[in-house]
Automatic annotation (TrEMBL):
Keywords: Aminotransferase, ATP-binding, Nucleotide-binding, Transferase. The keyword Transferase applies. It comes from Acetobacter senegalensis. This is ABC transporter ATP-binding protein. One of its GO terms (molecular function) is transaminase activity. SUPFAM superfamilies: P-loop containing nucleoside triphosphate hydrolases (SSF52540). InterPro entries: P-loop_NTPase. It comes from the Bacteria.
Length: 233
């Protein structure tokens, strides 16, 4: 596997999230994610899953400790550096995140166009290729509200895997997805890991990820006392 990052790709070092800002328990969170690893985090509360992914992305203020991505502390970065780093994160979230006034093709490419300096033609070509990989007939141009639930899940996968992300924060897309999407998702996940990406796969149902058990590096539970390691064997 490609491991360009020296040391942890993502490191939560006794990070205490602001309860007022996130609703997460104000206790120390500690976790290390190395390049190529896949960590499953069981989070029964969908809002906690969203906020935990936000914390990994540097979007939750901390009362203590630190969160570092690619060796850089989110709290010490300027806006330009933050934007560049967030361009390396692919995310599937349960938070409403599709703009109602844009075609889905623009919503899919917006993150790459905003956070990177890639030519638009390159971004569109990659989005089209991924759309076909995830079972869409091409890059969808209808507004997200006009897509079927199954096609919207496919579009979420396309958006998350755009730009060769170094970190994937995935609030389980398989839970409400068409069965035929599973193989495409797991193939894309494995390919991203082979290229050095680290994965945090947030699940509500402990059974969802079982088909990928052999590929999981470790499992955690998001509980009232923070992150608790769970034995997978």
């Amino acid at each position: 596997m490609e491991t360009r990052t020296v040391g942890p790709l993502l490191e939560l070092n006794k990070a205490v999230p602001s309860f007022d800002e996130s609703g997460l328990p104000p206790v120390p969170f500690s976790m290390r994610l190395m390049p190529g690893e896949c960590v499953v985090v069981e989070a029964r509360d969908p809002e906690n899953a969203i906020q935990f992914a936000d914390m990994c992305s540097g979007l939750v203020p901390l009362d203590d400790g630190s969160v570092k991505f690619m060796g850089l502390d989110w709290a010490e970065l300027h806006d330009r550096e933050v934007n560049a780093l967030r361009g390396r994160i692919g995310r599937i979230t349960r938070r409403p995140s599709w703009p109602t006034f844009l075609g889905t093709h623009l919503a899919i490419t917006l993150q790459q166009l905003h956070h990177t300096n890639r030519p638009m033609d390159d971004v569109v070509a990659e989005a089209t290729r991924l759309s076909e990989q995830f079972g869409l007939p091409g890059l969808p141009v209808l507004r997200p509200a006009l897509l079927s639930p199954a096609d919207l899940v496919r579009a979420e996968c396309v958006r998350a895997f755009m730009g060769r992300p170094r970190l994937l924060l995935l609030e389980d897309p398989l839970e409400a997805s068409p069965v035929e999407l599973e193989n495409a998702f797991l193939s894309a996940l494995t390919d991203a890991r082979d290229k050095g990406a680290g994965v945090i796969w947030l699940v509500r149902n402990n059974a969802i990820w079982q088909g990928y058990r052999q590929g999981v590096t470790s499992m955690w539970r998001l509980a009232d006392d923070g992150l608790v390691a769970v034995r997978t064997g």
